[in-house]
């Protein structure tokens, strides 16, 4: 993943404030040539800096109102296979490898407690999974964000 310069950060900040802004509007707002803005956006999309659009859709809007985090312990050398199997479960939003006693942190969503139970059973049925501990997500206090980091990279002249 390439590092962003201040101009990239300013462009991304402008997009966070108005995600539907046209290239022309962005170029006017930032004082950049239209071609420069278009080229930078194309590069940012192409090298994976911009996350896929589906990450903006909230699971709650799809009926998945219950969120949970599963700490998963995996048999040695089974991380790849277990991760692949987890990716096949639609309710799995994210899988992160950890150091320490827990091997994987799995973010899942469910429609209700019974659905979460079935997801837990499906995870436990994956070959190589040894143990699963589940913690309900009660409330999100800080949404996933990168805006403060973008502002820092863009320079001091950018406000919160």
From TrEMBL:
Gene Ontology biological process terms in this record? response to amino acid
Pfam families, from UniProt? AsnC_trans_reg, HTH_AsnC-type
Q: Does the keyword DNA damage apply?
A: no
Gene Ontology CC entries for this record:
cytosol
Task: Name the source's superkingdom.
Answer: Bacteria
List the InterPro entries: AsnC-type_HTH_dom (IPR000485), Dimeric_a/b-barrel (IPR011008), Tscrpt_reg_AsnC-like (IPR019888), Tscrpt_reg_AsnC/Lrp_C (IPR019887), WH-like_DNA-bd_sf (IPR036388), WH_DNA-bd_sf (IPR036390)
Among PANTHER family, the record links this protein to: LEUCINE-RESPONSIVE REGULATORY PROTEIN, TRANSCRIPTIONAL REGULATOR AZLB
Q: What is this protein called?
A: DNA-binding Lrp family transcriptional regulator
Tell me which species this is from. Blastococcus xanthinilyticus
Highest lineage ranks of the organism?
Bacteria, Bacillati, Actinomycetota, Actinomycetes, Geodermatophilales
């Amino acid at each position: 993943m390439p590092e962003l310069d201040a101009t990239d950060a300013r462009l991304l900040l402008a997009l966070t404030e108005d995600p539907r802004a046209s290239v022309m509007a962005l170029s006017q707002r930032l004082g950049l040539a239209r071609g420069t803005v278009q080229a930078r956006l194309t590069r940012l999309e192409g090298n994976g800096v911009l996350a896929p659009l589906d990450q903006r859709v909230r699971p709650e809007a799809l009926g998945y109102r219950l969120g949970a985090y599963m700490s998963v312990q995996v048999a040695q050398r089974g991380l790849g296979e277990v991760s692949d199997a987890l990716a096949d479960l639609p309710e799995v939003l994210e899988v992160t490898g950890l150091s320490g006693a827990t091997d994987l942190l799995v973010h899942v969503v469910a429609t209700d407690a019974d659905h979460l139970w079935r997801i837990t059973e499906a995870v436990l049925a994956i070959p190589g999974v040894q143990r699963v501990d589940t913690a309900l997500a009660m409330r999100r206090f800080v949404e996933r964000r990168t805006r403060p980091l973008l502002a820092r990279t863009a320079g001091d002249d950018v406000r919160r």
